[in-house]
Amino acid sequence: MHNFLRNTAEKILKESESLREVVVVLPNRRAGLFFTQHMGTLIDQPTWMPEVKTIEDVFYGFAGKRPADDLTLIFELYRVYGDLHPEPESFDRFFFWGEMILKDFNDVDQFMADPDKLYHHLAEIKELESDLSFLTENQIELIRQFWNSFISQDKKHQEKFLKFWQVLKPLYRAFQASLEVSGLAYSGKLYRQVALSLSEIQKPDKKYIFLGFNAFTKTEELLIKHFIKEFGAEIHWDVDAYYTLDGNQEAGLFFREYRKDSILGPTFPKELPNLIQSKDSKIKTYATPLKVNQANLVGSLLEQIPDQEALEETVVILPDEQLLFPVLHSLPERINQVNVTMGYPVKNAPVYAFLEAVLEMQRFIKIENGEPFFYHQPIKNLLSSTYLKSVNEGFCKGVLGEIQAMNKVYISRTELGKGGKLFELIFQKLEADQLFPYLSTLMQELAELLKDDMLQRNYLFQCFKQLTRLRETFEKEEQFSVDREFFIRLFRQVFQEVKLPFEGEPLRGLQIMGVLESRNLDFRRVIICNMNEDSFPPSAGLNSMIPFTIRRAFGLPVQEQNDAIYAYTFYRLLHAAEEVHMIYTTAADQGKAGEKSRYLQQMEVELNQDLSEEVIYVPIDQKSTDAIRIEKTPSILQTLERYLVGSDGHSETAFSPSALNVYLDCRLKFYLQYIAGIKEKEEVSEEIDAGVFGNLAHYSLENLYSGFIQRKKRTQIEEGDFAELRKNWIFPAVEKAIRDFYHLEDEAETKLNGQLAIARDVIQGYVDQVLAYDASTAPFRLISLEKEKKYQTTLEINTLNGARRVALRGIIDRVDELNGVIRLIDYKSGGDQKTFPDLDALFDRGLEKRNKAAMQTLFYGLIYQGTHPENTAPLKPTIFNLKEVFNDNFDPYLYQKEGRKTGIEVLDYKDYDPDFQTKLKELLEELYNPEIPFDQTEVLKKCEYCPYKEICGR
Ligand code: SF4
């Protein structure tokens, strides 16, 4: 079997006169350990081993120092920031921002970008326009593309946007100066320093051999090329023709570049190895419905390893660390040795949740007659934890029962202290300066309690280490006073990123590792979990203050490079593997539909061409394709009663236009969502996708106009009002929308990271454009804005139990009156059509592109008129499609239009009312017909993005 590290060790052994005179440099320590291990097995007599280093060791060795830890550096950065900024925010607010800035400084130095130019040009758009002489044509074009998206916005917003970055250039310089004085450094600084003084490096006594590199930073490239050219160093590439020779294959991105280089090019073998395609590998893919199913599948795949085969020839790759424990728990009994190499987030550990709850408790204490009383919620969490229950379960149960039975809101310290020593320790009121010693003592107590649970103890140890570091850093930084809130926020922020590093004995037993940990290692059998987009490769998201195009123009890595690194890591695993099992999930996770990794799709296409019969697609979850129908049982009919008006004139709930659209799209989907109550997972995402973007724009407009009404005490908006609205009120309205949406605190300016800040400014552009359109149609009178008003009506239908009234309700984004016409406005972010051929088409569930937006806005007409039966003004359905607001001929109105015929504008819902009611009535009568089951749609296209497709097997 091919094994890059072993083969190279063999080669070095054969070609080197004395291993003592050799330094082997690898990308990481783990590859170094494996290399040494292979070398050890190849040598049969006592001899000196070569020196094995990581590339980091080489740089730090020449720099004569190692970088300081991030926390210390962020403190230092904050101090410098404070000198530059008259009113710096508190340290905890600065912390995340500081992490991002530090990461950017690191990139700027690692990739030898000119910090002055880069930060200057981020901040000074004017200079960008005038002095571009130092940039190449390509760079100028990239930067222009970026700034052009802001050109349509007014000056003030541009300035505010730019201010965000203005501090960075002076901060970079001042930070460098302060590090020089303190003697501290971050890694990029050391790398740049070494790269700038390569000419001063003396020719080493030993021969340097670089192994297994794929993507260099600029500084690494400079150093390695210098060593090859000046000192005769060697480099061995872990490369394959499969992805290198295919110009479209992202995995070969770097190699293709290096092969063109005058120094690196000649170091590649004349003929690239063709490992992937020359092998008869068994490649299988598996679709599993849920993430957790993967663990069982891994277990059964491991069962099949032949007894005589060494376990270390198999690796399980876990792109998502959350699968680690399920996989460990599903291992077959015969696997008695496992080596885990990956980081597991401490924040997922139960003991961290406990510590967090302890701190949370401190935030809700009241004092009565000198005695602290604790708020019930955190107390309930703590008393329900395994830690306190394991000490005194009876007591915990007793107090919990009392809280419930007596509806206790606060519980006294005296009462809680009765549980025992640990309870006395935990339940006390602390001042800010007592928090560090308190947590240290508590951790020690917990460690004692957990002495039989090595894993939890390890977590605790990791927490303890972090806490001690935090404490030491604070002790050095005397000017930072710590209040309780500050401490709690900082504790959370620092621990967010901490991982418990699992590093077992290499090469013993089954190997379980993260993606990047597998670099340079070769295995006979590879099992990869989570082969889903967003997991492997991970979703895009460089957390950086520097926008993509600027990063790219200045040679800093962007997503494309990250993708190439992940793609290489994936394809490299295929170099040696004789058996590859790749598992992906089809279920939606965190609201995202389970989409299989593009690597799988690529391989299917690529290998189909050359090795078609070698790719075996085995969906283990071959779901039944039998149609699903849910008959209307008495209990379902009972649930449907909730939408009907009862004898008291009220209904429990009402049909919204979305519910009716769902019913029209698919009866089963309606059943699952509205009757069975199977909710779609709520998505918590910092990514700004189109849906989030639309919501943010929509909330911003709501904030803007409701703010106007509050300030001016009038609902009439004149054309003259728009100048001020556009100049002064867009920014706060958008800012508030973003903060509310992401639950960020007010005034926390720095928490809007690069992405959100960019989104904020882009949304401002859209909102401004809507206002420009509104100004052109003003004056108009605002009647209602979103939440503040619900419109409702009822519709009589015939059921088996006689005539009944169905409740209908809806929230209209905005209702206004323009020239005597009432506009029922819906803001949309997608590409919704504003034409429909006729009412039949709106109710035709067989149509793939039924116009839901038209159905919805006509429904608004029905409920508006129902709420205001006295109304005689025309009701005009209006769709503000944000994607179209920049079009010169933007027209938000609805048209009845067939094919290429000229459309007829819908001027008044009332013209459609009788027919619309008839259609709706028919639809609702069908819904209440016990004979018609909830069945699956026949239009498969509708299943594509349906969250229930797992259940349906569609
Ligand atoms: S997957 Fe298709 S059939 Fe199933 S509920 Fe969704 S839309 Fe209906």
Automatic annotation (TrEMBL):
Name of the protein in its database record: PD-(D/E)XK nuclease superfamily protein
Matches recorded under Pfam families: PDDEXK_1 (PF12705)
Listed InterPro entries: P-loop_NTPase, PDDEXK-like_dom_sf, PDDEXK_AddAB-type, Restrct_endonuc-II-like
SUPFAM superfamilies, sorted: P-loop containing nucleoside triphosphate hydrolases, Restriction endonuclease-like
Taxonomic source organism: Algoriphagus ornithinivorans
PD-(D/E)XK endonuclease-like domain mapped to chain residues: 655-952
